[in-house]
Amino acid sequence: MASIWRYANPRKFIETTDRVLPWVSTAALAALVAGLAWGFFFTPDDYRQGSTVKIIYLHVPAALMAINIWIMMLVASLVWIVRRHHVSALAARAAAPVGAVMTVIALVTGAIWGQPMWGTWWAWDPRLTSFLILFLFYLGYMALWAAIENDDTAADLTSVLCLVGSVFALLSRYAVNFWNQGLHQGASLSLDKEEHVADVFYYPLLLCIAGFVLLFIALVFLRTQTEIRARRMRALQARERLG
């Protein structure tokens, strides 16, 4: 465990992520280009949904990332509360805008997908509603960070907000299981063969999900580095004012 916590040192974190960032970025680009090209141009239309089904290659990875990014923020916030490591708090802050964008992509592509399937752009379906609330939590989280000048106080309050918002992250993931009503379909990736997508869609979808995950990692590394440097700059400016 001691070897893990050494990365909580800001300098060590920046040195390590500087080395791996080019590799992660390249892998993310390769996986996204290959997965999206494979999915959109080399898979057949679905016998029920037609070509509309191909939006799955954007919608499903974005929805998965929107939920799991909030869970990552929760873990980072708990590390801050327990261990008081600034890198973890800044990593959670860095992840929030990425998660918000993923949530928007999931909501927009879901509406585009849902209109021809359900006959409406929006329905107050349990999963859709909890996803919208999750997006509002993302906005509130970012606004709270921006509203408080003291970084430690902001980290404390946003960590509490992250704990509360995690309820809606879980609801977004399991809403279809909790409530049988609603228009939203079951999971596209499932152990149940009746729900699981066909293999012809499954493999490019996995590649797209891998691309989204790698893209998130690259963006969080880059944004966390920026947050660390911004924190240092604010500390230097505060010392100059006091001096």
- Broad structural category: mainly alpha
List the total number of helices.
7
Rg calc: 20 Å
What is the helix fraction of residues, given as a range?
A: over 70%
- Portion in beta strands: under 5%
Major sheet, described briefly? none
| SSE string | HHHHHHH
Distance between the termini: 39 Å
Judging from the principal axes of the Cα atoms, what is the shape? globular
Arithmetic mean pLDDT: 85
Q: Show unreliable segments.
A: 190-194
* Structure summary, number of beta strands: 0
What can you tell me about this protein's structure?
The relative contact order is 0.17. This protein has helices spanning 2-5, 10-41, 56-83, 86-118, 126-147, 151-178, 199-242. It has 7 helices and no strands. It has 243 residues and is mainly α. Helix 3 (56-83) packs across helix 6 (151-178), helix 3 (56-83) packs parallel to helix 7 (199-242) and helix 4 packs antiparallel against helix 7.
Topology:
Elements (H helix, E strand, L loop, with lengths): L1 H4 L4 H32 L14 H28 L2 H33 L7 H22 L3 H28 L20 H44 L1
Brief account:
By secondary structure, this protein is mainly alpha-helical. It has helices spanning 2-5, 10-41, 56-83, 86-118, 126-147, 151-178, 199-242.
Features:
243 residues, 7 helices, single chain, 79% helix, mainly alpha
